[in-house]
Amino acid sequence: MCFSTRDILQLGFVPLLIFMALIPKVAMSQETPKEPSNPQALLKAVPGTKIKLDCETNAVGMDFNPFKTTSGTVTFVLSFQKAAQKKTSSDKKPDEASGTDGNASKADGSTPARDEAHKSDAPINAPDPSVLGTWTASVEPGKHEASLGVSVEKLCAQGCVLRETPSGNMELWSPRPIMPSKLADDERLSIVTIDVNNLAIKATSFLGQQLSILEKGQCKIDKP
């Protein structure tokens, strides 16, 4: 069972309320964090390097009838092919200067940054300075069934697009950057955002133009 963008608006954000009510908050470990106070240093995009993230997430799958909620671990591997762009205060757009991400999602999952980037619907192999590399994801078989990790594991086995948002966070697209409004009825789109400062993760998945999965949680870096 899926909800279209129009349904979400007509229901007055009921799916979001369901999401917040059904999904428990990710328990934060009481142990001393192993990562330094500035995780961004560990997420620095160094060409030729890989970073493995273990993310404890909670997800609502709207493809199920009734909705299914599951919790579990999704493992992401970020493979960097180029360094992130250095940003100065003069590089910031008006929305960044006001303290927002510049990537706040609209009801259809689009954002001002994505709208601007995809006005021409350019192919993914077109030069794009925001592309940093590729990513893969995996979930333990038979577990966390509502997670987008289940659907993207095979889809992104060879790597999907890893980008940098205008505010410097990591944005993971599966299978490629495209506006939800341009999806075919049987085409799936997943968009994952990882905050480089606190490793919080948020994800949205669409099937066709219908909202399919909402997921959020907390990541930690899996050190070798």
| Largest sheet descriptor | 8 strands, antiparallel, barrel
Strand content: 25-35%
Dominant shape: globular
Give the integer mean of the pLDDT values.
74
Number of strands: 9
Return the structural class: alpha+beta
SSE topology string: EHHEEHHEHEEEEE
Percent helix:
10-25%
Oligomeric organization of the protein chains: single chain
Describe the structure.
With 224 residues, the chain is of the alpha+beta class. It has helices spanning 5-10, 14-22, 94-97, 112-117, 148-155; strands at residues 3-4, 50-61, 68-80, 131-139, 160-164, 170-174, 188-194, 200-207, 210-221.
At a glance:
By secondary structure, the protein is an alpha+beta fold. 15% of the residues lie in helices and 33% in strands. It has 5 helices and 9 strands.
Topology record:
Elements: E1 3-4, H1 5-10, H2 14-22, E2 50-61, E3 68-80, H3 94-97, H4 112-117, E4 131-139, H5 148-155, E5 160-164, E6 170-174, E7 188-194, E8 200-207, E9 210-221
Antiparallel strand pairs: 1-9, 2-3, 2-9, 3-4, 4-5, 5-6, 6-7, 7-8, 8-9
Which key phrases capture this entry?
224 residues, 9 strands, eight-stranded antiparallel β-barrel, globular, single chain, 5 helices, 15% helix
